[in-house]
Amino acid sequence: MRHNKLISIAVASTLFAMPWPARAQTAAAVGLEITPSQTELNLAGRTYETTLTLFNHDPATYKVDFSLQALGHDLDGAPEYLPSTDVSRAFSLSTTGFTLSQGQQKQVTLKGAIPAGERSIYFGVIATYSRADQQAGSSVETRTRLGSEFLLRGPKPWAEHLQITDVGVLPGVGRSATLYAIVKNVGNVHVRPTGTVTVSKNGLVIARLPFALNAAHKPGAVIPGFSRRLTAPWTPPSDLTGTFTVTATTQRPGASASKTVSFSNGKALAPDAKIDNLSVQNSNGVTVDTQITNKGTGPLAGAKLTLVATQDGRFERDRTVLPLVSLAPGASVDKMWTPRSLPDGAYQITATLEQGGAVLDQRVAGIRLGAAPTSRARGPLLWIAAALLALVLAVVLWFLFFRRRDDDRQQPAGSRA
Amino acid sequence: MRLRAAVVVAVVCLAMMNTPAVLAVSMAGPTGVTVSGWSLSSSGTNTISGGTLTVSALLSSYTVTVQADKSNMSEYASGAYVSSGKTLGAALHVITARTGGSGVSCNGAGQNATVGTSATTVASGPGGLLCSDIYSVTLSQTTAISDSALLPGHVYHIILTYTLSGGL
């Protein structure tokens, strides 16, 4: 019996102390697998450590290289990995890479802390992999990466604040439309807002719809400093004509905004344009290229494209506003910008397309100028520390169980209740 | 004795709960797919297969993005880009279409992505248990008469990077 308890204590202590990977080999897994793919935690302190596991399900041998990048997202919530000096300084990986043959799995340990003065950190561990025998193609080469996202909130107090920067309606195919609110996280931790959007006229509500959840059936995340479009699909009545008020209201955190929109026989009369691509390159100075397409049924007039260069997502270094005089339906236009000379560092270039106060699209691109700061890979110290922690926990638990029993035995029988 | 056993079980359960959330994503292809000697016509739309892409996501939605090392295909010779070389006027498009997969509700969707150096979504889906989505990948490059023909041994070149992530 005493041995059973000792084993239980040892197992519990080890489970607490060791950075065990989540063994979640995907049932239908293919190619290269990473787990966990997303970690969202509220930490009691600032430090954090975990282990990621990579499985190779393919017959090929893969060479895997790891890197850390800041995590952001575009207006539709697609993850964006951006170079960041802050993340490289705050977190490190136990290895920079390894090879994985068929059926093999290996771990990489992530360790670090939310920087002092910050309440959260958002980054991705990027596993770039290629076949060991991969040849370079003369026309097109292909590379592949797996991203493991980390959304870590530190100790409170948090500032959970949203700003609704635009509300409106996007015309769809036929009479279909998408009601939307563009929310910007102006707090210091990520939020997953819920909310509703209403269409009304003279106080009479015609439609009230909840904002759609993301594909994982939870509200989409909005990372500090980034904007996201919350949407609600709607089919207006076929006779809907005139001007109406669209009001968006969010909860957790709360915010509200309204705007007037127009419909004609159930068809939303609103511009629809997209930033098709955004490219940032450094060749004798930074150049930004972007292409914009008018996806609407009418000409796009009076729109403007704002390009902002921000160092580490915090310090604005340069910006420009490029007017778009007029763009016919279906037409595209290329815009180019050369920011002034930027000092070495990690930069985000944010492109925002607007017309008359309506945000039509937004994209973010990243670029690093100069050499990246080196991130130290850690050796076996992690495992020694974990073993010591397990030993300490085992001793504490031993005291709790066995010392208590010894004390019980030493007490005179008559003193027991 | 029962109380102690319960405490031990509770401690073990708490320890197991302490492990990270069990989310996983995996991707097969188009790793290593290379396109060599892509003969582009002087004007019009040129398409070629970019391979297949298979995605599996456990308990998580997913997004696959594509980004390039250059904004447009650029002149390349002897294993390197030509300094101040020529570039095509139009951006490359990566078009994915779901061609199969497993699972009942695995309805991932492909997209037509205009390639740039920033990430553009090329496929996304809800994921789920025993779920996989298979996509065909087509590369489409429009050329115009204003695009320059290159010297023998020189080609227009680009590096595409596909990234799979869980949905935010």
Average pLDDT rating of chain A: 85
SSE pattern of chain A, N- to C-terminal: HEEEEEHEEEEEEEEEEEEEEEEEEEEH
At the first level of CATH, the class of the largest domain in chain A is: Mainly Beta
How is the main sheet of chain B built?
6 strands, antiparallel
Quote the beta fraction of chain B.
Answer: over 45%
Output the structural class of chain A.
Answer: mainly beta
Low-confidence stretches of chain A: 15-26, 375-386, 410-417
Query: How large a portion of the residues of chain A is in β-strands, by DSSP E?
Result: over 45%
How many E strands of chain A?
25
**What is the general shape of chain B?**
elongated
Mean pLDDT level of chain B = 84
Q: What topology, given as strand order, has the largest sheet of chain B?
A: 5-4-11-3-9-7
CATH superfamily of the largest domain in chain A: Immunoglobulins
Instruction: Give the termini separation of chain B.
Output: 46 Å
Question: Could you characterize the architecture of this molecule?
Answer:
The complex is a heterodimer of chains A (417) and B (168). In chain A, 12% of the residues lie in helices and 51% in strands. Chain A is globular, with a radius of gyration of 27 Å. In chain A, β13 (194-201) and β14 form a beta hairpin. The longest helix of chain A has 30 residues, at 381-410. Chain A has helices spanning 2-17, 85-90, 381-410; strands at residues 32-35, 38-42, 47-56, 62-73, 79-82, 91-93, 97-100, 105-113, 120-131, 140-153, 162-171, 177-185, 194-201, 204-210, 227-234, 242-251, 255-264, 267-268, 273-282, 286-294, 300-311, 315-327, 332-337, 345-355, 358-369. Mean pLDDT of chain A is 85; it is low at 15-26, 375-386 and 410-417. Chain A has 417 residues and is mainly beta. In chain A, strands 2, 4, 5, 7, 9 and 10 form a six-stranded mixed β-sheet that branches. A five-stranded antiparallel β-sheet of chain A has the order 14-13-16-17-18, with no helix packed on it. Chain A folds into three domains: 33-156, Immunoglobulins (Immunoglobulin-like, Sandwich), CATH 2.60.40.10; 158-270, Immunoglobulin-like, CATH 2.60.40; 272-374, Sandwich (Immunoglobulin-like), CATH 2.60.40. Chain B is mainly beta. Chain B has one domain (24-166). Chain B contains one helix and eleven strands, in the order αβββββββββββ. Chain B has one helix at residues 2-17; strands at 24-28, 44-58, 62-68, 74-77, 80-81, 93-102, 109-110, 112-114, 120-125, 132-143, 155-166. A six-stranded antiparallel β-sheet of chain B has the order 5-4-11-3-9-7, with no helix packed on it. Chain B starts with a helix and ends with a strand. The interface between A and B is large, with 87 and 80 residues.
